[in-house]
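ARCHIVE CARD
CATEGORY: sequence design from structure
SOURCE FIELD: tokenized fold
FIELD CONTENT:
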């Protein structure tokens, strides 16, 4: 064991006034420090870098899942916002927390289902365009803001931040229209 590491672990002995080399408590403290150093070297959670790589991998996976969740929230922006607003209103009028949550989910599902039925069953291009814009505009705003805020965390130039955010807005709006046009039995899981 290196003398520097031994000094670091035995420094706690000196804090309590225990002297090393007196044949009593100080030597026991030093022996305990020696055994702790030996145990730490074999512990896979404190040395070797494997836990760090594992936690970095988990962090990247969690960030990816969060991006998927944010993208889905942007795609379903209109139903989500109406569901949240209705849930808050239901809670405020006295339905409670559970009633507000259930009401919000019910309204969000109904808004999407009604919009999908109107979009798929209507033959009029004006009605289809109106429903598509009703779902695509909030999705585009959400997609733009998500990409803009994520790129703001990095060191991306302002021009490229706006260009990539516009691409994110187009992707979110296009996905919202595509999911609106797909029949309910063929909807993707994610």
């Amino acid at each position: 064991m290196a003398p520097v590491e031994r000094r670091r672990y035995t420094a706690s002995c000196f804090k309590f006034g225990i002297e090393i080399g007196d044949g009593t408590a100080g030597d026991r403290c030093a022996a305990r420090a020696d055994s702790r150093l030996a145990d730490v070297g074999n512990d896979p959670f404190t040395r070797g870098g494997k836990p760090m790589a594992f936690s970095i991998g988990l962090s990247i996976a969690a960030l990816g899942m969060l991006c998927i969740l944010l993208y889905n929230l942007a795609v379903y922006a209109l139903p989500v916002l109406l569901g949240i607003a209705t849930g808050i209103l239901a809670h405020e009028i006295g339905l409670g927390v559970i009633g507000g949550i259930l009401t919000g989910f019910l309204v969000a599902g109904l808004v999407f289902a009604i919009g999908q039925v109107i979009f798929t069953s209507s033959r009029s291009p004006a009605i289809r365009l109106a429903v598509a814009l009703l779902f695509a505009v909030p999705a585009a705003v959400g997609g733009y803001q998500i990409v803009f805020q994520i790129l703001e965390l990095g060191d991306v130039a302002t021009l490229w931040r706006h260009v990539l955010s516009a691409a994110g807005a187009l992707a979110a709006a296009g996905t919202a229209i595509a999911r609106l046009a797909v029949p309910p039995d063929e909807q993707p899981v994610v």
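CARD ANNOTATION: Helices lie at 3-15, 25-42, 50-75, 77-121, 125-153, 158-181. The chain has two domains: 3-42, 50-186.
SHELF: design records, drawer C
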